Structures are given as structure tokens and as C-alpha cells.
């Protein structure tokens, strides 16, 4: 019987512990309107209304930077694609080069090229047609990855600010996202009607 009493007491204390931890979890999932909520670390805890306002302004600017970086990445993606599609290969009769195999390309167009020696008549200019992803290039994929790293880092910081459940931080992130979208949202939109 003593063993059963011991089990009942341990299960009771275990269930009361789980209830207290679940009630404390539900307590943190409500919005609060305090000026002393830490942001990212305990060292960054506003101690006055002015420092709280400064923290909110920082979050607004961070959210604007996030939208600007997304718009910049989309603009660069368009630039990288256009550069890839407009890559030209020129071949001149009598000269062999890697571009010589464009003679069999059905997308090649005959054109004349003005050079320092005059007009070259036997020239083909090829515009690459987009068939799948563009090839991997260090000069394109490294900046793309770095931009994505910055965007992901800022987005996670903004998410952590929202997860503090502070009304001021939440409204600051939303306000910054709104201002950023208002300023650069047109650059993020894709052209769905073709190129």
C-alpha cells in the first residue's frame, strides 16, 4: 500500500508540474503592453519610454530593410536572367572558337558585325532561349546565396521580435513591412504576361 501511495503522490506532483508548466506556457502566449520587454537578449531591455520607442524604430527600419533586400534580390534575379539570355556568341569565317558550334543552332540569326577591320558579313548572333534553370556561375550564385542569407537572418530576427508578444514590437514589425512594401513592392512583382 505504501508503494501505491508513493505512486499516487509522484503522479500527482508530475501532473501538477505539467499543469503549472502548461499554464505558464499559455500565460506567455498573450500580447502584453510593457516597455521593459527584452529584444534578442537580456542586455537589450528598454528601461524607459524613450529607449522603448528607439527599439520600435529599430524594428521598423529592420522590416523596411528586409523588404528592400527582397526587392533587390528579385531585381538582381531579373538582371542575371537577362544577362544569361542575352549572352552572345559570335563566329567569324576562318576563325575557330568554342562558339563555332552555334552553326547548327536553329535559334541563330545571320547578322553583320562592324569591327575595327570593317563590316564582317559571316556572323551569327545567338540569343539563348531559357530552357530550365540558368547554369551555375560563381559570379551569380555566390551573391544570390549571400542575399538570401541576409534576408533569412533579418526575417528570423523580425520573427523573434514578434514572438516576444509585445504589442509595440509587433506593430513596429507590421508597420515597417507596410512601409517597405509601399516603397519597393512594385519591384517584387513578377511579370506574368511574358518577357
Quick take:
By secondary structure, the chain is mainly alpha-helical. Helix content is 57%, strand content 9%.
- Percentage of residues in helical conformation: 55-70%
Q: In terms of structural class, how would the helical and strand content be classed?
A: mainly alpha
Integer average pLDDT: 76
- What portion of residues belong to β-strands? 5-15%
Helical stretch tally: 4
Largest sheet: 2 strands, antiparallel
Poorly predicted runs of 5 or more residues: 96-102
| First-last Cα distance | 82 Å
Indicate the multimeric state: single chain
Strand order of the largest sheet: 1-2
Task: Give the topology string: H per helix, E per strand.
Answer: HHEEHH
Number of strands: 2
* Coarse shape: elongated
The whole-angstrom Rg is 30 Å
How would you characterize this protein structure?
With 195 residues, the protein is mainly alpha-helical. The protein has a domain at 71-86 and 138-190. Helices cover 57% and strands 9% of the residues. It is built from four helices and two strands; from the N terminus they run ααββαα. A two-stranded antiparallel sheet has the order 1-2. β1 and β2 (118-126) form a beta hairpin. α2 runs parallel beside α4. The longest helix is centred in the middle third of the chain and has 37 residues, at 49-85. Residues 96-102 have low confidence and may be disordered.
Amino acid at each position: 500500500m505504501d508503494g501505491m501511495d508513493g505512486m499516487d503522490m509522484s503522479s500527482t506532483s508530475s501532473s501538477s508540474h505539467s499543469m503549472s508548466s502548461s499554464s505558464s506556457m499559455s500565460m506567455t502566449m498573450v500580447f502584453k503592453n510593457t516597455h521593459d520587454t527584452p529584444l534578442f537578449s537580456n542586455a537589450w531591455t528598454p528601461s524607459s519610454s524613450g529607449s522603448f520607442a528607439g527599439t520600435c524604430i529599430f524594428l521598423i527600419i529592420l522590416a523596411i530593410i528586409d523588404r528592400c533586400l527582397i526587392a533587390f534580390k528579385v531585381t538582381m534575379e531579373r538582371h542575371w536572367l537577362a544577362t544569361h539570355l542575352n549572352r552572345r556568341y559570335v563566329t567569324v569565317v576562318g576563325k575557330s572558337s568554342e562558339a563555332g558550334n552555334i552553326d547548327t543552332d536553329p535559334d541563330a540569326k545571320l547578322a553583320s558585325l562592324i569591327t575595327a577591320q570593317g563590316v564582317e558579313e559571316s556572323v551569327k548572333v545567338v540569343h539563348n532561349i531559357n530552357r530550365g534553370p540558368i547554369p551555375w556561375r560563381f559570379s551569380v550564385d555566390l551573391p544570390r546565396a549571400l542575399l538570401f542569407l541576409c534576408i533569412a537572418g533579418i526575417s528570423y530576427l523580425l520573427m523573434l521580435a514578434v514572438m516576444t508578444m509585445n504589442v509595440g514590437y509587433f506593430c513596429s514589425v507590421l508597420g515597417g513591412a507596410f512601409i517597405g512594401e509601399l516603397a519597393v513592392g512594385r519591384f517584387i512583382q513578377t511579370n506574368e504576361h511574358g518577357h
